[in-house]
Design a protein that fits this description.
The chain is an alpha/beta fold. The chain has ten helices and eleven strands. Helices cover 34% and strands 15% of the residues.
């Protein structure tokens, strides 16, 4: 039987984001059992701030038990300022095979939607069918998945406990076919010395979505070891932008991904979701960073 997650209590939940394509955010879970090895920026920051001691601490998520109570207090004060709330930047709202996280996330989304606050959601897990119930959840919410590859060997090393790539795509497509807005984050996209793959093949798999966000892999020395990695990311951004323009998909190239002025960055962050017109463990990190698949 799966052990219950530890509970923690916080003094606040909603905060203004500094990320270019977000507004307000919240993190109602601390840590993430996916254990991503890119490495994970959120984990590095929590370790630097002394919130966690190491990788093993990070992969044991803790639920913010008073999340709904905090929203009851904060929403009346902030709802006139909030355009939307993003879930989540330092954890995963639909953490794979973590039913307690899923249950709390559904409560959080429902509570925000009750005050007509729309949500943008991003996961490496799978989406439950419950979200299709538009009586409980707003049809203005936007649901996204992170997809940087279709290679399961790559995923098993860099996202060891996250859901399989095709499973993510399948549940996202189910939401799309129900009329909900969907998007994909292709970040952190790896260089070919980490995994050899066809970017267009990945784009074709997610061509049903309303929006694609593309960004480079940071904080990994293996990227700089790839010859001409700057041009590689310029070319990838060009492929993404052209694919999206041809297929009438909105897109956003993350700041710092491209190094020339010929690639459009499409920074319309306030109107980024449109309907598609077309039908630490240093040993492990070192090993993962040097592996070519």
């Amino acid at each position: 039987m799966k052990q219950k997650l530890q509970k923690i209590y916080r003094k606040s939940l909603l905060y203004k984001s500094g990320v270019e394509y977000a507004d307000y955010c919240l993190n109602h879970v601390e840590g993430c059992s996916h254990g991503c090895m890119y490495p994970c920026y959120a984990m590095m920051m929590k370790k630097r701030c002394g919130v966690i001691k190491n990788y093993q601490d990070w992969i044991k998520p803790k639920i913010v038990a008073n999340a709904i109570e905090l929203l009851d207090k904060e929403i009346p004060k902030l709802k006139d300022k909030i355009k939307f709330v993003h879930l989540c930047f330092s954890t995963d709202p639909f953490m794979y095979e973590q039913p307690e996280v899923e249950e709390m996330t559904l409560k959080v989304i429902a509570r925000l939607n009750k005050d007509k606050i729309r949500c943008t959601v991003l996961t490496k897990g799978v989406y439950p069918k419950d979200l299709i119930d538009t009586k409980k959840y707003s049809n203005k919410n936007e649901y996204g998945i992170t997809i940087v590859s279709l290679n399961e060997k790559f995923r098993s090393i860099f996202e060891p406990k996250a859901s399989p790539f095709l499973k993510r795509i399948k549940t996202l497509k189910r939401l799309h076919e129900s009329g909900l807005k969907t998007w994909v984050s292709m970040e952190p996209y790896p260089t070919p010395n980490l995994v050899k793959q066809n970017l267009l093949e990945i784009l074709e798999k997610v061509s049903f979505v309303d929006k694609i966000v593309f960004g480079r892999l940071n904080y990994n020395s293996a990227v700089a070891e790839y010859r001409d990695y700057k041009n590689f990311y310029n070319e990838c951004a060009e492929i993404v932008s052209k694919f999206c323009e041809i297929n009438k998909i909105n897109y956003h190239i993350k700041f710092g991904t491209v190094t020339n002025s010929t690639v459009k960055k499409n920074l319309k962050s306030e109107k980024i979701f449109i309907r598609q017109l077309k039908p630490n463990d240093h040993t492990s990190l070192s090993f993962a960073s040097s592996l070519s698949i």
